[in-house]
Amino acid sequence: MVAENANISTLPDLTRHTLLSGRDTYLQGNNLTKAELTTKLPQQLAEDKAWLKQTIDLQKYNVKKIMKVTSPKKVAKITSRTKMFKGKADKNGVFKMKNLNLKKYKKKKLTLRSYYINNYYWREKWEMKSLRLS
User: Fold this and answer.
1) Pick from 58, 33, 34: nearest CA to 120
2) Among candidates 42, 58, 54, 81, which has minimal Cα distance to 129?
3) Could you tell me what percent of the chain has a pLDDT over 70?
4) pTM of the model as a whole
């Protein structure tokens, strides 16, 4: 079953579909809560902790504010002379990029992207957020 990025917040009752497996069920990029997933999906999916965790992690409400540059205060302040910047990733992590040499990218647009490596789905990468750097 594929319903990724379908902007859904509710599911029909799928509890009788006992042949659904995590490897064949893609519900990422929606607004589905843990309660919605555990009550409307068949028991084998609701009890598959790895699949359920990654499906919840990849819902839109968890992705919106995943990465923020904290130093310098604004992303627009990152230039070809910037040697280091840092920020917050997710609610638990931080990142720091130091010893940068961005001179060769002067007058070019750069993008900083964060990815969720989804081990349940054959190591697929899901882009979480992208920041445009000047």
Assistant:
1) 58
2) 58
3) 82
4) 0.64
- Identify the sign of the CA torsion 52, 18, 40, 60: positive
> Which residue reads 């919106």 in tokens?
64
Closest CA to 24 of 56, 48, 59: 48
Residue for token pair 């349940």:
120
> What is the distance between the alpha carbons of residues 134 and 69, in angstroms, rounded to a whole number?
13
The answer to whether the beta carbons of residues 111 and 130 sit under 8 Å apart is yes
Q: Tell me which residue of 65, 83, 71, 76 sits closest to 109, measured CA to CA.
A: 76
Residue 100 — very low, low, confident or very high, per pLDDT cuts 50/70/90? confident
Residue 101: φ, ψ to 5°? -130, 90
Cβ neighbours for 75, distance < 8 A, ≥ 6 positions apart: 69, 131, 132, 133, 134
39-60 pLDDT, tens digit per residue, is 999 999 989 998 898 888 888 7
User: What pLDDT score does 31 carry?
Assistant: 92
